[in-house]
Amino acid sequence: MGEGRWVEVRVVDGDGHDQRRFVKAVRQLRKELADEGLPTQDVVGSPGGLQQSDGSIAIAVALVGAGGAVPTLVAVLRDWIQRRKNPGKIVVTLGEDSIEMERPTFDERAELLEAFLKRHQEN
């Protein structure tokens, strides 16, 4: 995924009906991440935001800066998923470790996500 510390954010389709709307929503997430200064890039095997056979799209997000990237990433993901009617889930992966977040549980698990990202950022 390139140099530096990158996290994979995989968005799994919630309704499975309108692929065009799903792709557009993930592109909007990528734009929002970039607007907050978080560099993104395609994940190998998911070029240009193409949907995978499991109904998901993955993007890589760089964790850059002096610790400010983690809370920013969590805030952007929270805001984005809360605005979706059928968001499915977000799977955040660093190395071999992953955490799943869904809209009904996102607020409850946001602290876990932040701790997960910080733990891996320090390694």
TrEMBL record:
InterPro entries: EACC1 (IPR045428)
Transmembrane portions of the chain: 57-77
One Pfam family hit: EACC1
Tree of life domain: Bacteria
Keywords: Membrane, Transmembrane, Transmembrane helix
Protein name per UniProt: Uncharacterized protein
Native species: Kribbella jejuensis
